[in-house]
TrEMBL record:
<feature type="domain" description="Acyl-CoA dehydrogenase/oxidase C-terminal">
    <location>
        <begin position="232"/>
        <end position="366"/>
    </location>
</feature>
<dbReference type="InterPro" id="IPR036250">
    <property type="entry name" value="AcylCo_DH-like_C"/>
</dbReference>
<dbReference type="InterPro" id="IPR037069">
    <property type="entry name" value="AcylCoA_DH/ox_N_sf"/>
</dbReference>
<dbReference type="Pfam" id="PF02771">
    <property type="entry name" value="Acyl-CoA_dh_N"/>
</dbReference>
<dbReference type="InterPro" id="IPR013786">
    <property type="entry name" value="AcylCoA_DH/ox_N"/>
</dbReference>
<dbReference type="InterPro" id="IPR046373">
    <property type="entry name" value="Acyl-CoA_Oxase/DH_mid-dom_sf"/>
</dbReference>
<dbReference type="GO" id="GO:0016937">
    <property type="term" value="F:short-chain fatty acyl-CoA dehydrogenase activity"/>
</dbReference>
<dbReference type="InterPro" id="IPR009100">
    <property type="entry name" value="AcylCoA_DH/oxidase_NM_dom_sf"/>
</dbReference>
<dbReference type="InterPro" id="IPR009075">
    <property type="entry name" value="AcylCo_DH/oxidase_C"/>
</dbReference>
<feature type="domain" description="Acyl-CoA dehydrogenase/oxidase N-terminal">
    <location>
        <begin position="9"/>
        <end position="116"/>
    </location>
</feature>
<dbReference type="GO" id="GO:0050660">
    <property type="term" value="F:flavin adenine dinucleotide binding"/>
</dbReference>
<feature type="domain" description="Acyl-CoA oxidase/dehydrogenase middle">
    <location>
        <begin position="121"/>
        <end position="220"/>
    </location>
</feature>
<keyword id="KW-0285">Flavoprotein</keyword>
<comment type="similarity">
    <text>Belongs to the acyl-CoA dehydrogenase family.</text>
</comment>
<keyword id="KW-0560">Oxidoreductase</keyword>
<protein>
    <submittedName>
        <fullName>Butyryl-CoA dehydrogenase</fullName>
        <ecNumber>1.3.8.1</ecNumber>
    </submittedName>
</protein>
<keyword id="KW-0274">FAD</keyword>
Length: 387
């Protein structure tokens, strides 16, 4: 399918398509939740070096940028898979690379690059505060050479298939800081040191077969040198990770969008009703053409967000807008595809209903549509603050 995005990564795309071809839709249909995690697929991606795409060459990675990482994610979804099972390592990498100490990088990056360790989890969201992140209640209190963590998180993904987790917690009470974004810190937690030893994990069964969990911290102790960067500046650091995450999710939505358009177009050409292909009817063609157009437009913003992130330019506005446009475009394409398939869209064997559910998530996570619009209104257009 022709696309308007810069076509400078054909080799990368070819290699990924070859790998993804070994994991057909039947495979992805069966895998997802903790007990059915697509381990073979993620292992194949790791062995081929894709999960180390952003790790600098000196640490054993490929030294590629967010642009290339986003293509990895896009191609997984475009091939019928779900990059949500492994995208954490890409966006968490941005946080560790930009804000981790030399010692932390030397300790972890080579092992992540070799596949010995996975950095797939990031714990931000909390049940009682939701999107109001700076009000989060999990605390980290320094005691000698340790921090003691108490609190709770929700929707924390891939814990059962990760070795490391980036944790956001409050180190200075909200009442004692000038700005609510101050006093938060991030930590790089080794999961085998805390699971069952201060941290309890409770899986959440969910609509998209995504491995995700509630976490409970009860006097969980972690070494003080797990702190990333300076104490109290964690919110600023994690924003880099969040911008990377939004851009990668945009790329995944683009991959989903192309998958839906390809399926819808092929089916509209094959399915004959009233003695002609349904795709001959403009009532069927036009929604597919419109959805494709919107994916193409969103894709340009996605590459602009990637370019700015890789150039170390501010990318918050573009990352948020790319995520909004791409999530809307993939959701539109999902609806159009389901409608084109008619009743067969509801049969699991066509995968349309599965991808429909999977792409729906991106209207809500990792940031909901309303919150992006609020960011655009307030931070880009300078409109009055609403919360
Ligand atoms: C499958 C899945 C995996 C996830 N994985 C992770 C993970 O690995 N790590 C992690 O930290 N989090 C994760 N999340 C959490 C996700 O980031 C949040 O669900 C998301 O940010 C929305 O937060 P919330 O669910 O608390 O919604 P809430 O903040 O409770 O909001 C609920 C609704 O109200 C709307 N709303 C709230 N306030 C306003 C306002 N002021 N104006 C207008 N609308 C408003 C929101 O847009 C939303 O639609 C995951 C979630 C899911 C579903």
């Amino acid at each position: 399918m022709q696309t308007s995005a810069p076509d400078i990564h054909d080799d990368l795309r070819d290699a990924l398509r070859a790998l993804c071809a070994d994991f057909p839709s039947e495979y992805h249909r069966k895998h997802g939740a903790a007990e059915t995690y697509p381990e073979e697929f993620i292992t194949a991606l790791t062995k081929a070096g894709w999960m180390a795409a952003m790790i600098p060459e000196e640490f054993g990675g490929s030294g590629l940028g967010l642009t290339e990482a986003s293509i990895v994610m896009e191609e997984i979804n475009r091939a019928g898979g779900n990059a949500g099972h492994c995208h954490g390592q890409m966006y968490n990498m941005g946080t560790l690379l930009r804000h981790g100490s030399d010692a932390q990088k030397a300790q972890y990056l080579p092992k992540i690059a070799s596949g010995e360790l996975r950095l797939q989890s990031m714990a931000v969201t909390e049940p009682s505060t939701g999107t109001d992140t700076t009000k989060l209640k999990t605390t980290a209190v320094r005691k000698g050479d340790k921090y003691v963590i108490n609190g709770q998180k929700v929707w924390i993904s891939r814990i059962q298939h990760s070795d490391l987790m980036i944790l956001l917690a409050r180190t200075t009470p909200l009442a004692d800081v000038k700005r609510k974004s101050e006093g938060l810190s991030i930590f790089l937690v080794e999961l085998d040191q805390v699971i069952g030893k201060g941290m309890e994990v409770k899986p959440i069964a969910n609509m998209v077969g995504h491995e995700t969990n509630e976490l409970f911290f009860d006097n969980m102790e972690i070494p003080a040198d797990t702190l990333i960067g300076e104490e109290g500046k964690g919110f600023r650091y994690i924003l880099d990770g969040l911008n990377a995450e939004r851009t990668l999710i945009a790329a995944e939505c683009i991959g989903d969008g192309y998958w839906f358009i390809e399926k819808a177009t092929a089916y509209a050409g094959e399915r004959e009703v009233f003695s002609r292909p349904i795709g001959q009817n403009q009532g069927v063609q036009f929604p597919i053409a419109r959805a494709y157009t919107n994916i193409e437009a969103a894709n340009l913003m996605r590459f602009e967000a990637c370019r700015r992130f890789d150039a170390m330019e501010p990318s918050g506005a573009q990352a948020n807008m790319a995520k909004l446009l791409a999530a809307d475009a993939s959701w539109e394409a999902a609806n159009v595809c389901l409608q084109t398939f008619g009743g067969f869209g509801f049969a699991q064997e066509y995968d349309v209903e599965r991808k429909f559910r999977e792409t729906r998530l991106y209207q809500v996570a990792p940031i909901s549509t309303n919150l992006i619009l609020s960011y655009v209104a307030e931070h880009i257009l300078g409109m009055p603050r609403s919360f």
